[in-house]
Write a structure and sequence with these properties.
Elements: E1 3-6, H1 9-19, E2 25-27, E3 34-37, H2 42-52, E4 61-64, H3 67-72, H4 79-84, E5 92-97, E6 103-107, H5 112-120, E7 124-129, H6 141-148, E8 154-157, E9 168-172, E10 178-182
Parallel strand pairs: 1-8, 2-8, 4-6, 5-9
Antiparallel strand pairs: 2-3, 3-7, 4-7, 5-6, 9-10
Helix pairs in contact: 1-5
């Protein structure tokens, strides 16, 4: 079983060290608990995919430390994207076109300590909800441990998720149209 540590400054520094070496950690967000890895380690992402029994065609979002990091990563920075990003930090994942001809789902979470962890890791972390594919997401550490606790390296205990509902996911087309793909706590 993974070690459970407090979600505080010492805990995030320890988690950042683990993530920047290719580890996998369960982290609290304001929506539900997430399982995260550093984007520079594809083997860590594959590890998460395997532990969740997740289909290859289902992408993982990028949690960003701030909006500037999203634009610096190559997401389409348009007036429409800027308007949608006004919900950040918050429970909105925006699927944005990138300069590479692909799309990427970004979210700037509304937990300052989580944003600090992400910043310590270089500004971005790959993340998905803590659950087996098709099952409800974990809303607290007990549920997170029951779902994936034996498969991760570290668990940050931030208490119950504030919202307990996954983020709203909306996609922005290159033409500027916004389509809600999954309704969560943010209503567009």
């Amino acid at each position: 079983m993974a070690e459970i540590i407090p979600f505080n400054e010492a805990g995030i520094e320890r988690a950042a060290g683990l993530l920047t070496r290719g580890g996998v950690a369960i982290v609290p967000t304001e929506t539900v608990y997430g399982v995260a890895c550093h984007p520079a380690f594809p083997e860590a992402l594959e590890r998460i995919r395997a532990m969740k029994h997740r289909d290859r065609d289902k992408p993982f979002q990028l949690l960003a430390a701030d909006t500037a990091t999203v634009w610096a990563d190559g997401a389409l920075h348009s007036p429409e994207a800027e308007r949608a990003a006004a919900h950040w930090p918050g429970a909105l994942t925006l699927v944005l076109p990138t300069g590479k001809g692909t799309t990427e789902g970004y979210r700037v979470p509304d937990l300052p300590l989580l944003r600090r962890l992400i910043a310590l890791c270089g500004g971005l972390l790959r993340c998905t909800s803590v659950n087996l594919s098709g099952e409800p997401p974990a809303k607290d550490v007990r549920e997170a441990m029951a779902a994936l606790g034996g498969a991760v390296d570290l668990v940050l205990d931030g208490g119950p998720a504030l919202l307990g509902v996954a983020s709203t996911v909306a996609a922005l087309s290159p033409e500027g149209r916004l389509a809600v793909l999954r309704q969560g706590s943010v209503h567009l």
